[in-house]
Amino acid sequence: MNLIVFVGNAVPPKPVLNPQPVMSTPDTHPRLEIRNLRRAFAGREVVSDVSLKVTRGQVTCLLGPSGCGKSTTLRIIAGVEMQNSGEIYVDGNLVCDTVHRVPPEGRSIGLMFQDFALFPHLSVADNIAFGLKGSKSNKRARVLDLLEKIDLTRAIDQFPHELSGGEQQRVALARALAPRPSIMLMDEPFSGLDERLKDEIRDSTLDVLKAEGTAVLLVTHEPDEAMRMADEIALMRDGRIVQQGAPYNIYNAPVDKAAAAFFSDINVIRGKVKNAMVDTAFGAFLCPGRPDGTEVEIVIRPQHLRIDFDRGGRGPAPTPQDGTPARGIVERARFMGRESIVEFRMDFDGSVLHATVPSVFLPKAGTPLWLMLRRERCFVFPA
Ligand SMILES: Nc1ncnc2c1ncn2[C@@H]1O[C@H](COP(=O)(O)OP(=O)(O)OP(=O)(O)O)[C@@H](O)[C@H]1O
Ligand SMILES: [Mg+2]
Hints:
Elements: E1 5-6, E2 32-41, E3 44-54, E4 59-63, H1 70-78, E5 85-90, E6 93-96, E7 109-112, H2 124-129, H3 136-149, H4 165-177, E8 183-187, H5 195-212, E9 215-220, H6 223-229, E10 232-237, E11 240-245, H7 247-252, H8 257-263, E12 267-274, E13 277-280, E14 283-286, E15 295-300, E16 305-309, E17 326-335, E18 340-346, E19 352-357, E20 368-373, E21 379-382
Parallel strand pairs: 1-14, 4-9, 4-10, 7-8, 8-9
Antiparallel strand pairs: 2-3, 2-5, 5-6, 10-11, 12-13, 12-15, 13-14, 15-21, 16-20, 17-18, 17-20, 18-19
Helix pairs in contact: 4-5
The structure holds adenosine-5'-triphosphate and magnesium ion.
């Protein structure tokens, strides 16, 4: 048993305020609100009690693994799929429950899916103007305004086949935004694009969406995309939203091990509670309120391990931030470009831990090194 006990373990860093505050609106209703949506296919529930609000000017990402029910949720909101129960409100007005059903075209919802097929026989201008009503001059003004926003004014008279994939994507975005929908629903809208183009197009799409002030619900299975785009992430698993919050808070205070693992590789240190503490190679962790004998898992991301050198069989001095150091033997080290990943076999119990270092650090296999856990970055979950 290590002697040092630190009281500060498993307290997540302070949440930061949303860096892009939601724009104030004259009415207090969220643009989109869904309550208790359920949908089953052949007796299997794929959307279970999903509730969500999206405010004007805000991007919410519905994030989750393949098959968890994201697209089904979006299709129900769009009105192309029907829920078994639950309600959908747009700007505070009920558009669909099991009795009333406003058709898709009456819901003030813009859609952009993965296969955002433009009309091949229409010019860029006519594609964007397609869903617009009103006078010719008003339509023209809106088309010119959007072309400027997507930075494609020069392509006004071109046809889709004359544009690159990224340019077509921007035109599809402009087409969906043209009628000023209250809400934009986007289902993996970047997945068809060249990997190297994606980040640039994500950023420019975000600029346009913010400039338009639309509320956006974007579906993705890529955590990086959600972190990059979202004001708020709704993490979905097996038809349910398991956690919702700003990207920073979801990343730094996950509800469970699976939520932590969805965003990065994780290390898991197992132990059993005794006297409200768990003894590990890194000292004791407090587990208040958990009865003796409870199996717990301490989760830490590889970038939150610190590596230090061996000083003739001794490690660095313990600190309140990093707890007690523990020795491990390097099994292998790999250079990944932006960072190096070092794999350790721990002396304490033979378990394997991974640490990432943001530089070239390639110790030889067999080298003894010391590891420390950044205590405030550890999460303790019941096993
Ligand atoms: N019309 C349907 N009939 C029967 N099963 C369906 C239907 N639509 C969806 N499903 C099932 O519902 C589950 C959820 O599908 P959904 O398309 O919503 O997943 P997803 O989260 O969007 O996944 P992905 O990331 O792969 O697109 C899947 O198991 C799918 O097979
Ligand atoms: Mg899908």
